[in-house]
Amino acid sequence: QKEVEQNSGPLSVPEGAIASLNCTYSDRGSQSFFWYRQYSGKSPELIMFIYSNGDKEDGRFTAQLNKASQYVSLLIRDSQPSDSATYLCAVGGQTGANNLFFGTGTRLTVIP
Amino acid sequence: DAEITQSPRHKITETGRQVTLACHQTWNHNNMFWYRQDLGHGLRLIHYSYGVQDTNKGEVSDGYSVSRSNTEDLPLTLESAASSQTSVYFCASSDGSTGNTIYFGEGSWLTVV
Prior knowledge:
The structure holds two protein chains of two kinds. Chain A contains no helices and eleven strands. By secondary structure, chain A is mainly beta. Chain B contains no helices and eleven strands. Chain B has strands at 4-7, 10-13, 19-25, 31-38, 42-51, 54-57, 64-66, 76-78, 87-94, 103-104, 108-112.
C-alpha cells in the first residue's frame, strides 16, 4: 500500500509571499510525482509533474523532488488570493502503466 | 476540445437501490479511473481500466463494479447503494504516454439516504 502524506493545514500566507507545500511518500519505487490544485467544489486540476531529482520551474510554481528522502514539495512564489485552494500531492509508479496515489491535500489560504 | 464528462452531476438515492454513474471521455485515452473523495481520506481509487474489456479493482472496490465496452466510456455501478457510499465521485483518464498525467471530470455528488 502506497502512502502519501501531506500536512492538512490550513496554511496561511500573505499575498506576495512564498507558499511552501510539502509531501512525503512511502514507496521507494515511485517514479512520477504530481501536484494538483483543487478549488472548493471543483475537480482537481494538474499544476505540474516532476520525475527527476532536483527542481522544476513553471511560472510561479517550482516543484522539488528528493527521492533519497522520499520528499516532494511545491513552492508558489508571489502568492495570489486566487491561489487559495487545496493542493494535492500524487505519486505514481513507472510511466504509462500505473494509477496515482493521492495525499489528503493541504489547504492554502492567501491573505490579501 | 476533448473533454471528460460525468453524469449525473448530483443524485440522491435510497439505500439498496442500484445506481450507475456515467463517464465519457473524448480524448481517446486508454486509461480510465474512478476515484471517490471523502473528508480525511483524500482521493481513493475504486476501479480502473487500461483498455477495452480490461477492468481492475482499486483500493476501495467493494460494492462497486465497472465495465469497459469501448474506449470512451467507463460507467460505475453501485450494486446496492449504502449510506457509506455517499461521496463525491471523480472519473479520470490518461493516455499513459506522458507519464501518468491524469485528467479529471467535474465530479458526481452522490447522496444515499
